[in-house]
Every structure is written in structure tokens, then in C-alpha cells.
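Lab notebook, page 48
Experiment: co-folding of the full assembly
Goal: obtain a model of how the components sit together before planning crosslinking
Operator: M.T.
Materials (sequences as entered):
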Amino acid sequence: MGEFSFIQWIRKRQRRRRDVTVGIGDDCAVLNVSSDKLCLITTDMMVDGTHFDLRKCTVRDVGRKAIASNISDVAAMGCRATAAVVSVCFPENTSEKFAKELYNGIWDVANKYTIEVIGGDTISGRSPLCISITLLGKDGGLKPIRRSGAKVNDMILVTGTLGGSILGKHIHFEPRLKEGILLNKHFTIHAMIDISDGLTADLNHILEESHVGAILYEDTIPVSKAAEEIAKKTGNTPLYHALSDGEDYELLIIVSKGQAKKVMESNLFPERTFRCIGKIVSGRGIRMKYAQGHIKRIKPRGYEHLQSEFNDSGEL
Ligand SMILES: [Mg+2]
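Observation: model returned without errors.
Model output:
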């Protein structure tokens, strides 16, 4: 059973409450905390050896990544992040300096976005370093953007460049929180997700939630330099890496044609590029229109941790 089918299994069996506006199946859950205010909740767990490698990065980097990947989920809903609950299992005999550096990493990012660490749990055990952060957010008067609003003939936009994140971006990335809020505030966004599993895998989450299909244009996919670099080592094409690597933490945005034009021409985002990479069509699945003109169905593939054993879980 893969990670996503396991999540579907839980989702189908979970009884729903009326004050849970969004339950399992999106970037954040949304709770109705009063008649007119919403609370967003998202959680991410990471373990050494699977989501990061302490032989290749510092513990401070781990702290940064753990909070930033959560912020990216709030960004994907177009809302604000407010407070974090941090739970950590340190390996036995962890030094005080190591433990403090993890929190210094969390604060490096959290302070930038005025997010407060409001609690959590710290234990030590016979296990690799494991960190779980639950991040809360608020609507700030805006409607959280769901995965389920994509409509036929909508355009698919993406921020930044994609692929090869393993060469560094998966640790050192800037969550697109500012962009998410501005998009929500100034435009009509039909659906949005952050790219954590991989472009096609995350696009597929939107397609499934919205019951539509998509066509991508090969020559418009923003392939990163890192994707080109890693392709030399793996023998795959740079495009393959841009489509499937994941952990780019860019935003995938679904908007009407008119709004897409407005977003791309807007001067609200001086540091950000938006690329139109395809459109929403009726039917199911993803097809690719190659530069030579032929169209082929492609399989959504991406980084899915939970393949044979329950050593990781994704977004519920
Ligand atoms: Mg996400």
C-alpha cells in the first residue's frame, strides 16, 4: 500500500464534524473556531536518513527545513501562519549544543514570518533524530484556497524553477508565503498546492480533488539548473527531474485564463516569475504535449516515501 492509498483509507473512515471546514486531503486542515474566523492546521514529520541526512547537512538546516515545509503548506492555502508546536525525538546522548542548534534553525525561519513556537514535546530515545512540527494559521479575512476548485479551460501556473532539489533546494528554500497571500488577496485563484511530492504528483492531487484532467506543454516547464546538473549523473532527462523530483516548494496555481494573464503581468511580485505550463481539460490524468507536437499520457510520479513500510506518512 502506498502513502496516498493509505491516506485515502484513513480519509474514507474518518467521521466528519460540522466545524471542521476542511478535513483530510488538502495542504492544511481548516477549523471553524468562531462564526467568522478559521484556523488552519498542518503537520509534517521528518526523520534522519529519510527526509534529511545529518551527514550532509547541519542540524540547524534540519530545523529550518522542518518549519519551512510547514509554512509552504499554509502558503498553498493562501493564508497566514501564526504559531508552531514542535515535537522532537533526539537520539540518546545528544549534546545540548546540537539540541539548541535545531531550535536556532527553526527560529531562523519562524522569526522571519513572525511565527511563535507555542509548545511541543522533547524526548530522547534509541532512534535517529525525528522532528514533527504542527503549524497553525489563520484566514486573515481570506478564503483558504482548496485543491478542489480547478475548472476545465483553467490555466496552470507555477512559480520558480523545478527539479534537482536534492542538490540543495530541498534544505535551502524560501516558502512562497508572501506570494500565496498576495495571490489570494488580489486574484481569484481556483486551486493551489505547493510542490513537495513532485510537479506531476502534486498536480495530480489537484486533478483528483477537482475531478478534471490536465495537459502540460513540454517547452514551458521551468527546468532548473539543478535538474540539468543531476540529469548528467542519473541519465534521466532534465525534464524528468523537473516533473518528478519534488521538494521544490514552489506553488502550483490554477486560475482562469484572464486571471492567469493578470497574475503574470502583475507588479505585485517583483522577485517572482510565474510560468504558464499547461491547462485544465475534461477527463482524468495528465497528458504532455511535446515540443515536436505529439501528445502522450504521462504517469504522475513523484517522491512517495511510504512504499513498502510505514516509515513515513505524508499529508493527511
Ligand atoms: Mg502541501
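Interpretation: DSSP finds eight helices and 13 strands in the chain.
Next step: discuss with group before ordering constructs.
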